[in-house]
Design a protein that fits this description.
76% of the residues lie in helices and 0% in strands. The chain has 189 residues and is mostly helical. Helix 4 crosses helix 5. 30% of the residues are buried.
Length: 189
């Protein structure tokens, strides 16, 4: 029993470290200021979900990453969402319904993003991003294309990450960059 408690605390702590990296990357202002992702609770959730999908799909099937770590990361993410909803003033009765909808939406995003990444289908990924990340906003195609390229680049970068390092809570995303948008901003100034 003592070993199980240690293992559980270790997994939880490792999941916390991974989740902190995910949240930090999702908070990069470039997403909101330069790539047009709505700076709203939904937009922030969707960026966290996008990065969590990238990490969870990387962890899947890697023998160096214990399978329960993925579940611990997922559980931590939605415990955080629950807490955030409560802090925003959502009533207790509504929180459960909102979390249930968020979990269902997350699985839909996971499937859509994963399929597009596996098939390396940029147009499917762009459609999924418009549907989920931008939702009701009509983004410009350059921004969506830049985010799609970013996602594909991150998936490739994470594929090269050592599974043992991820299992220890170390995770690195590459910086958010958008050469097309950088070039356009340079021309405008």
């Amino acid at each position: 029993m003592l070993f199980f408690g240690f293992r559980s605390r270790h997994l939880t702590e490792t999941a916390r470290r991974l989740y902190a990296v995910i949240v930090a990357q999702a908070r990069d202002e470039a997403f909101y200021e330069r790539l047009g992702v709505p700076d709203t609770p939904d937009g922030r959730y969707d960026l966290i979900a996008l990065h969590a999908v990238l990490v969870l799909r990387r962890m899947r099937g890697d023998p160096a990453v214990p399978a329960p770590l993925s579940q611990a990361l997922f559980d931590l993410m939605f415990a955080d969402m629950d807490e955030n909803l409560r802090e925003m003033g959502v009533g207790d009765l509504a929180v459960g319904k909102r979390i249930k909808a968020m979990v269902q939406g997350f699985y839909g995003r996971l499937n859509a993003y994963d399929t597009a990444i596996v098939t390396d289908d940029r147009s499917d990924l762009m459609a999924a991003l418009k549907r989920n990340l931008y939702r009701k906003v009509v983004p410009d195609d350059d921004s969506v294309a830049a985010v799609a390229d970013y996602v594909l680049d991150q998936a490739a970068t994470l594929a090269r990450e050592d599974g043992a390092r991820i299992a220890s809570g170390e995770l690195h995303f590459t910086p958010v960059s958008s050469p097309d948008i950088d070039a356009r901003e340079t021309l405008e100034t």
